[in-house]
Amino acid sequence: MADRTRDLLWSDVDTLYGAILAHPFVTGLTDGSLPHETFRHYIVQDAHYLRGYATALAVCAAKAPTDDDTLMFAEHAAGAIAAERELHADLLGALGLTSEQARELPVAPATRAYVSYLLAVAYGGSYAEGVAAVLPCYWIYGRVGEHLVGAGSPDPVYQRWIDMYAGEEYHAVVEAVLDATDRVGAAASPAELARMREHFTTTSRYEWMFWDGAYRRETWPV
What we know:
Family: Belongs to the TenA family.
Pathway: Cofactor biosynthesis; thiamine diphosphate biosynthesis
Helix content: over 70%
Low-confidence stretches: none
Number of strands: 0
Distance between the termini: 49 Å
Largest sheet: none
Order of helices and strands: HHHHHHHHHHH
Function: Catalyzes an amino-pyrimidine hydrolysis reaction at the C5' of the pyrimidine moiety of thiamine compounds, a reaction that is part of a thiamine salvage pathway.
Mean pLDDT: 94
Pfam families: TENA_THI-4
Shape: globular
Structural class: mainly alpha
Number of helices: 11
Protein name: Aminopyrimidine aminohydrolase
């Protein structure tokens, strides 16, 4: 269906998605050129991010108009915390860092900005706006996983990361959120749909910035 909300949203960020695929952080996962220190910085920041993302998902659950959507986003909020504890603990261990040590490291500028934007939209916007804001983290990771899995990685740590986001279980989660997006988008007023598009594009840009910040091992300049 050409008139699905998901198709409209993706049309706004297709060029941006190409920039994500071309970023040396992403290409470095499959050719093995990404230094482990850079990936470790990314995992530390992702752990910080997921705690804020879980809060945004919980707010979406609280605002959801149906029991099914409330249950879905509440489960995903719990899943984000579980991922932060389990997957990241596993990956950090392979990279020589404990979860406790990672928690004490500073939140980088891109991470702080991205999480702050998500929470502002989730709390201050409508349910539809919140869904649009949290969607890129689901969808872009799924698309990146699909793109990278064919090439694979010579590095087992990176392959583990790719396999998770390319897996059927993860893609079933993404599809459920896309279905919710289509439903709320179909019911949205033109003004609300315009805000959904703005939020979706903004947080898609933050996805690029998050990987770029990790690649540069971004710290606060002052």
